[in-house]
Amino acid sequence: MRSLFIALLASTAPAALFAAPVELPATVTAVTLFPQGAQVTRTVAVPAGGEILVPNLPDGTDPAGLRVTGTGLAIGAVTLIDERQPAAAEVVSPALAAAREKVAALTEALAAKQDGVAQIRAKAEAARAKAEFLKGLDTANTAPADIAKLAQTVAEGVLAASGEAIAAEAEVRRADVALQPDRDALEAAQKALAALEHPEKGSDSLLVTATGAGTLTITTFVQGAGWTPSYDLRLDGTAGTLAIDRFVSVRQATGEDWTGVDLTLSTARPSDRTDPSELWPQLLRIGPDQPVGVMAKSAMREADSFAMPVAEAAPMPMTLEMQGETVTYRYATPVDIRDGVENLRLGLDTLERPAKVLAEAVPARDDTAYRVAEGTNTGVEALLPGPATLFVDGAVVGTAEMPAVAAGAPFRFGFGAIDGLRLKRLVPEANEGDRGLISKSNERREVAQISVENLTGRDWPVRLIDQVPYSEQEDLKIDWTATPAPTATDWTDKRGLLAWEFDLAAGKTQAVKLETTIRWPADQVLQ
Description:
Residues 1-19 form the signal peptide. Residues 31-134 form the DUF4140 domain. The chain has helices at residues 94-135, 144-178, 180-197, 294-307, and strands spanning 22-23, 27-33, 38-46, 50-57, 67-81, 204-222, 225-236, 241-252, 258-266, 328-330, 335-337, 344-361, 368-376, 386-392, 395-402, 410-434, 441-454, 460-467, 477-483, 488-489, 497-504, 509-521. With 527 residues, it is of the alpha+beta class. The strands form two sheets. Strands 7, 8, 12, 13, 14, 15, 16, 17, 18, 19, 20, 21 and 22 form a 13-stranded mixed sheet that branches. Strands 1, 2, 3, 4, 5, 6, 9, 10 and 11 form a nine-stranded mixed sheet that branches.
């Protein structure tokens, strides 16, 4: 038996130590969902103090995450039980009493209707008996003159009795069919009553010593639950705004249904690590330059492992950590979340952010430019990573994976190809070879002709991105020229990337000439 003792009342009466605890079920009233895990709050109405047994906590409840408080109650010893349960005096809860009353009422109603069906069935049986009696009449002592009259009477009587039987049997069938909703209602009520009287096994219980009357609040943490965000990104290219419709998909597999709970979503991550990584001293050594064989390299690695402690890498979190303060969202209406059978999708809110819309062109890789929206997350909260559906002026253009965007951080989302912006990158001039025996150097020269043609029927702001190689060796010389000159070099802090930004009118073409020359010593090979 695993026990968690929060406190112990020194004034407990000796007789109370031997009294059977009173069993009072708890109701899940509130849930705080984290991206992984959930904090579940249950309440118990305690009419009087003493030992209270709270059954049906999730199997494997973690004592470290268990908290018990009372309103109007003084809490004493608290014991978490996961094996043999103590005998408890039954207390009929309002829900259990209502379930029993419902079963009794439905049973009586069904029995009364079944009595009516039995009466109709008796009428049918009487009519059949009458018909059989008439068929079996003895005509031996009947005068010949009366036989025809008697036959007519018998025939009419059999016909009438058979008709009554047929009508009564039809009425029995209709009445029996009409009883099916009553049978279904009674069966459902019996199942609900059985669930209350005989709850599932494999659960934990809580034994609480309390003084007074009031409400007992039990808070536990469970791992088998969580929520993930999803988005609809709606770009209005004319207004230059990006509307972000936020949704959440909640899930839980705790072994119980959560019905009518107050739902709070939190961006906190109690399941993740809470401290930063640790760095160890880095030891460097020098020695004579000599060939090192495979075995020697292995020995050196082994020696280094003793010289410098190596910390085991901490597991990476499942999702990116949020930057900034923890944000919580409380859902406005009570929510039902069933156990393990569905992802419940809930609408959260809509955020609007100003966005710059442009066409981004990468002729070295693509034949068309792509629509891009850029801006800043001007809100006070981060956007968490999740799947997104993309809309442009009300039409779906694709799907993407939303990255984590911190509050105040820039964002950039692609919204599909612009088929009317055609890209070309041609290399009409390229040569590589010796420049001469005297210079003892090699040279490689490339001239690229790049163009963006606007066939869309509207003007576009364009960002053209291309690249030139770069070198970190003194003997490897790289020179380049571009006409027109790029507006930015080392674009997005990537060496060798060039960017041109310009407005391209409908029907026009923008050309860029990029010339690159590479030189290196003759006794070296370009890699």
